[in-house]
Amino acid sequence: MIEYLIGVDGGGTGTRVRIASPDGVELAQASAGPSALSQGVAKAWTTILSAIGEACAAADVGSPSLSCMAIGLGLAGVHNKEWAAQFVAADPGFAALALDTDGFTTLMGAHDGRPGAIVAIGTGSVGEAMREDGAKVEVGGWGFPAGDEASGAWMGLRALNHIEQVLDGRVEGGAFARDVIAACGGNRDAVQIWLGRANQTAYASLARFVVAHGASDPVARAILEHAGREVAGIARALDPAGRLPLALCGGLGEVLLAWLPEETRARCTPPRGDSARGALRMIEQHLKEKAQ
What we know:
Blueprint: E1 4-10, E2 15-20, E3 26-32, H1 41-59, E4 69-75, H2 81-89, E5 96-101, H3 102-110, E6 116-121, E7 125-130, E8 136-140, H4 152-168, H5 175-183, H6 188-197, H7 200-204, H8 207-212, H9 218-238, E9 246-249, H10 253-257, H11 262-265, H12 275-291
Parallel strand pairs: 1-4, 4-5, 6-9
Antiparallel strand pairs: 1-2, 2-3, 6-7, 7-8
């Protein structure tokens, strides 16, 4: 018998978990470190189970068996079918499991499962839409560094390229460059070491400097304006007629609203819920379909 529903949003920067009763009433939520499948299947499960334990503690329900829980997960990295299969095979014993991309669960949360489009922008980026006929469309989501346009990691990569040129003396740098250089160790040798160790999450950590200096530094502004155009391009590909409601989601979604072309910004509506809530909706629908 299923006593609890679990919704999980797992990305390259962090994990959010919501726990609900079988009738969908939310009881608590918790967060933990990254659980994107690029981190490794074992690490992803360890992080998710830890967050579930914290959510159960917050809900004051003790430590229920996994066999009485049904879990829906929206995880970064599910596009890699090999990783996804390994993750499902390592299921530690949930009563039911539904897995999709974090982009799809973000879509489910943003529009309450109804037709609409989203561009999710955080460590990575992806566009998802569900059209009136129920068809699913995905744009982007190719992963860093080849894709993930407008994402935190994409911005961070451009910030690094700028400070390389500043340190070389090829261009002049201002406060934006100084802040990024300081965050990467303070000098050329330290930046080289930083680059050798950096992953997607590390690059994304530099996006805060792009945002902070966007109003005053021309390089940071250019990065943000470029990001806005990339978001607009994803939105057009998702819904060429522009009829669906559009939500910008993720940690950088609200920030990038101000940098969108006007016609794209005019279509945007606030998301109704987050990816973890969308994962709850996904597992609810999965259980209903199984019961039919």
